[in-house]
Amino acid sequence: MIRIVLPAHLRTLARVDGEVKLDVESPVTQRSVLDALEARYPMLRGTIRDHVTLTRRPFVRFFACEQDLSHESPDTPLPDAVAMGTEPLLIVGAMAGG
Amino acid sequence: MSTIRVLVGTKKGAFILTSDGKRTQWAVNGPHFGGWELYHLKGSPADPDRLYASQTSSWFGQVIQRSDDGGKTWNPPGTKPEDLMGPDGMPKGESNMFLYDASAETGQPLTTHQHYDGTQRPWELKRVWHLEPSLTDPDTVYAGVEDAAIFKSVDGGTTWQELAGLRSAKGHLWQPGAGGMCLHTILLDPGHPDRIFVAISAAGSFRSDDGGKTWHPITRGLKSQYELPDPDAEVGHCVHRIAMHPSRPHVLFMQKHWDVLRSDDTGESWQEISGNLPSDFGFPIAVHAHEPNTVYVVPIKSDSEHYPPDGKLRVYRSRTGGNEWEALTKGLPQQNCYVNILRDAMAVDQLDPCGIYFGTTGGQVYGSADAGDSWTAIVRDLPPVLSVEVQTLP
């Protein structure tokens, strides 16, 4: 079971509270997790990554295990702790004023 | 007695202001979608409880929201409340995509437009600036987007198809202005169901007479002496807003980057009507609900000084279709006022006397229940106002 923490605005959009838990088949990667997330919450399509290119939106970050994984390849396996569900994948809106 | 519903889009959410026909006591409801930019909200003329909203964010992109109950509840189109809130917790909603048409039949070769540096760049969706519901069908709605294009939905906003012929109107020459290459104005001609007018910043104004299949620039008479190398160019003019009266759709009024203009031939030619305005720079322009020759603008000092001249917030009204303008100041700040009024942030109601409303970048929404003779602040401290639309409900 993969644990995902969404930013507040996307929790509102998806109408979820707290962490999202998803079953994702191995290998667990950014791509496979986001595919599963968007399949279950289709209203999130286009909000984390581009509808067509599937590239990460510029002001979205992926953190896990105190690491910034935003610039990793979408097909790189996520840390074991994320794949085992002991640590969540954090999807974060980048810092900005305003 | 009638009810007035004012739909206000701001940089941090949407607000709905309601009053009875006296327009003296207002209820303020919101924020809806707090923290998101609400570029525009508009109700369907065919079903006033059907509202569309453009919800956008630099972080999370573009979402279209729809309400079927006058703004009490909202859902991304293509969803139903029971789908989203089902007992199994498994939402089935679909977000909505705006995919530029790249098909061989209608989308080619319009794959790029000019960029600031002179290179050609692909069209990329930034946001939806304006939503224009059909005059007759609640499920049909048009969207004006950045990078400039027009999309149409016939299923209540669930799916969108680009009317790609617009980009054939010299789209390769369009380039973004400082505010982005946005299609911000869509006017539907009530007398000719297939006629659509649009305006695009730094590109110009365009008309289709066949439901959006083909388009041509309508810019003859526009002059942009300091903005374009060829002041009379067919495309490239920074049109800020176009307005019409539904009883006289062949007459158009335009607020351009500089200049206020009028066309009496469905946009084929334009004449300047700036007359005695203290500045002919500005963003919104609106027409009185019952007097097709009564027009409103809000002069702004200059292209780099986006605030009223002399710190005095003045709406200007012409009862003669232009050239002769009177300042409307009663109830508006006449000192130290340095707000702006954006292009989609002024609208009129349908009551008699006509009500007129506008929102400012300072967060005020002003209303007049006497056609502009006097004004009151309905609300003063909202986030910067991006858009104002008005519904007159029976």
Give an overview of the whole structure.
The complex is a heterodimer of chains A (98) and B (394). With 98 residues, chain A is of the alpha+beta class. Chain A has a single domain, classed as Roll (Ubiquitin-like (UB roll)), CATH 3.10.20.30. Helix content of chain A is 22%, strand content 19%. Chain A contains three helices and five strands. Chain A is globular. The mean pLDDT of chain A is 93. Chain B is an all-beta fold and 394 residues long. Helices cover 1% and strands 38% of the residues of chain B. In chain B, strands 3-2-1-29 form a four-stranded antiparallel sheet, with no helix packed on it. The N and C termini of chain B lie close together (7 Å). In chain B, 53% of the residues are buried. About 2% of the residues of chain B have low confidence. The interface between A and B is medium-sized, with 25 and 22 residues.
List keywords for this structure.
heterodimer, A: 98 residues, alpha+beta, 5-stranded mixed sheet, 5 strands, B: 394 residues, mainly beta, 4-stranded antiparallel sheet, 1 helix, 1% helix, globular
Strand order of the largest sheet of chain A: 2-1-5-3-4
Main beta sheet strand tally, sense and closure of chain A: 5 strands, mixed
Unreliable runs of chain A: none
Distance between the termini of chain B: 7 Å
Count of helical regions of chain A:
3
Radius of gyration of chain A: 12 Å
Roughly how much helix do the residues of chain A carry, as a percent range?
Answer: 10-25%
Could you state the oligomeric state of the chains shown?
heterodimer
CATH fold node name of chain A: Ubiquitin-like (UB roll)
Give the SSE layout.
The complex is a heterodimer of chains A (98) and B (394).
Chain A (H helix, E strand, L loop, with lengths): L1 E4 L2 H7 L5 E3 L7 H11 L19 E5 L2 E2 L11 H4 L5 E5 L5
Parallel strand pairs in A: 1-5
Antiparallel strand pairs in A: 1-2, 3-4, 3-5
Chain B lengths: L2 E8 L2 E8 L6 E6 L4 E7 L7 E7 L3 E7 L13 H4 L27 E3 L5 E3 L4 E7 L7 E6 L2 E5 L7 E2 L20 E6 L7 E5 L3 E5 L7 E2 L21 E6 L7 E5 L3 E4 L7 E2 L8 E7 L7 E6 L14 E4 L7 E3 L17 E3 L7 E4 L5 E4 L7 E4 L5 E9 L1
Antiparallel strand pairs in B: 1-2, 1-29, 2-3, 4-5, 5-6, 7-8, 9-10, 10-11, 11-12, 13-14, 14-15, 15-16, 17-18, 18-19, 19-20, 21-22, 22-23, 23-24, 25-26, 26-27, 27-28
